[in-house]
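User: what does the whole thing look like in 3D?
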Amino acid sequence: MSITIKDIAKVAGVSHTTVSRALKNHPSISAETTARIQHLAREMGYTPNIVAQSLLNRRTNTIGMVVTTIADPFMTMVVDGAESVARQAGYSLFLGASHNNPRDELDVVKTFHQRRVDAIIVTSSRVGSLYATELEKIEIPIVLINDQQDGKYLYSVAVDDIHGAQTAVEHLISLGHRRIAYLGNTVRPEANRRRREGYLAALKKAGISPETNLIFDGVTGDDVALGAQILDDLRAQSATAVFCCTDMLAVGMLLSCRERGIAVPEQLSIAGFDDIDIAHFVSPQLTTIHQPRRQLGQLAMQMVLDLLNGKSANNQILPCELVVRESTAKLS
Amino acid sequence: MSITIKDIAKVAGVSHTTVSRALKNHPSISAETTARIQHLAREMGYTPNIVAQSLLNRRTNTIGMVVTTIADPFMTMVVDGAESVARQAGYSLFLGASHNNPRDELDVVKTFHQRRVDAIIVTSSRVGSLYATELEKIEIPIVLINDQQDGKYLYSVAVDDIHGAQTAVEHLISLGHRRIAYLGNTVRPEANRRRREGYLAALKKAGISPETNLIFDGVTGDDVALGAQILDDLRAQSATAVFCCTDMLAVGMLLSCRERGIAVPEQLSIAGFDDIDIAHFVSPQLTTIHQPRRQLGQLAMQMVLDLLNGKSANNQILPCELVVRESTAKLS
DNA sequence: TTGTACGCGTTATCAA
DNA sequence: TTGATAACGCGTACAA
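Assistant: Here's the predicted 3D structure for the full assembly of 664 residues, as structure tokens:
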């Protein structure tokens, strides 16, 4: 049972109103009683009850963050960025995982709503357009990370998938590759679609006509396994390079190449997307598209705070850049 | 402005008490009005206000989790495990990062207290014994992950560092190594101490006398850099094997070996501790001690829930096991 | 300068 | 079967 301002009031022989004011250094309370009460509060181990304050304020100073899974090297940094900005502004962060399950995702959002979070941040949602209709009812700002949707309370911060993918594939083309495969995963359909689009744009620009049997789309949660599994098909199509929709796909392919004695990048150039930490720990180190992950989280949270402070906010698309490492090389 | 039960009451022409009961399927309300009100509630888009409920219940159904940093492949899984257990039990998770800064850590805990979380989980704390005195005042269960402390409300779930480290070093000894170095990092003093203890125990058991100049203790936040930096000293002492206190240290050393053309494991055997994901993506794959990370989080949360349900709970020490991969080999 | 009374949204007690 | 009232902890308009 925690100490309340009424408890302090009783001991101090004043009303709880006076205590409330003294603790907030309200000017109308005499310096003397203010000091006395603040001292007393500390002595009695008083801690303000934010729950009660929230009820009164109609503001919980709380943000709900929905991620697909926390155990994802990509999400991790985004959450980290968001949390640090939130805390510095006096907000606390609720974290919920959707595990790539739309039902769970809506469930988490619903719980957040019940807890009266002031705003919600959602990363790589799978609920898609459902949001637009379902979430406007909540009437609080919702910032989508890497997933644009239109709606009254909907905002987004995203990385330029199309252009990023295009840059990666242009890099492969500049190395002399022509038979360039695309490996995607439909678990995140929108990102996959945009990155494939970038891939196609690069080919088109170079006058290379795309081939359906060089485009692979997996449907599993385990990107590493998928990358490995696709390798044979890809070689059968005599691809000399592959652009993977995510680094984990690329890593799976890399490991699989090592197992089967396929030299990377000599026999096969591999490029990824995301620039997760693992990218420079594998060997050869992975050429990839760097996403400003922490910044993504920070920006999303800053946007939320701006909106809560009545400022306006514009959707943002962050550029991402090519990082050339060791897994891509000139076509021999 | 959200819909409240009073709003519904007005529309339905009943008292808000009746609405409250109807929504909870209270038996004393007629089936008819119950149905009518539930329908109305859905139609009006009513969402219960947990904040108000919490004020009344003196229970927020909320757990605060403090991690050093979210951007740590180890923490990530622990949080993931904890979150899933919490949510299934109807609890929400507050996440706060201490960034290895004791001041921040206490700050986060204080905020959690103000928010009246029902319990707190702290991973790899740096505050140490400060907790025992400081945190008992909060009078809620606190579960420490990988950091034992004694106190009335203090519980812990930890991995058996000593035995784990000992197993790793015994593995190296069994491969014929005698000049085995230890590489630690004092940023996490307690874990470091225990793992060094396990290292010494293994040497002693094998009748090898420890040498001070084979024991290295770094003091930087960047384990990868530290591992690299120590490599020369270690070679100068003609160590043939090294046991690293964390996988990141081992990875740093591994990468540095590759750069300088030192063959692993032929010229130097390297063993780590943690079994983070990266361990099987580096090449050679890292021999290490596997920690049941997700289980650690799950168990901690389960313990919290048990305590909140009035059950008793016992501190737990989980075994961890050796995973032999490619970075260790027979002394040639 | 301080105190009284009310309300935030909900549930529980008691009465009708 | 339903309703009026009080209470959770706090802040604030108004009164003293």
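In plain terms: The two ends of chain B are 74 Å apart (CA to CA). The domain at 161-291 of chain B is CATH 3.40.50.2300 (Rossmann fold).
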